[in-house]
Amino acid sequence: MSEQDLRKTLESLIADARRLQKEFEYYWSPEGENVAQLEIFIDPDLYQYIERIYKDAQAFFARV
Fold it and tell me: Between 40 and 52, whose confidence is greater?
């Protein structure tokens, strides 16, 4: 793999990560599906798992 191919691949991964970050933020926010309100309707353990995935994803996006 050439340096140019590697650069294109990394740029594509970064673009995908940014898109996913926007989607995560949208669905967690009041203007989206507001996943945060699921806490009212689902098992608390399942909600904690979903919330942990969200927070871990946000931490990953912050590093990218």
Answer: 52
Q: What is the pLDDT of residue 45?
A: 87
Can you tell me which residue has the tokens 């340096």? 3
CA distance 45 to 32: 23
pLDDT-derived band of residue 32, with 50, 70 and 90 as boundaries? low
Among 26, 13, 29, 27, smallest CA distance to 61 is for 13
What pLDDT, on a 0 to 100 scale, did the predictor assign at position 55?
87
* Sign for the pseudo-dihedral over CA of 11, 12, 14, 19: positive
What angle do helix axes 44-63 and 3-28 make, rounded to 10 degrees?
140
Sorted by where each begins, the domain ranges of the chain are 3-63
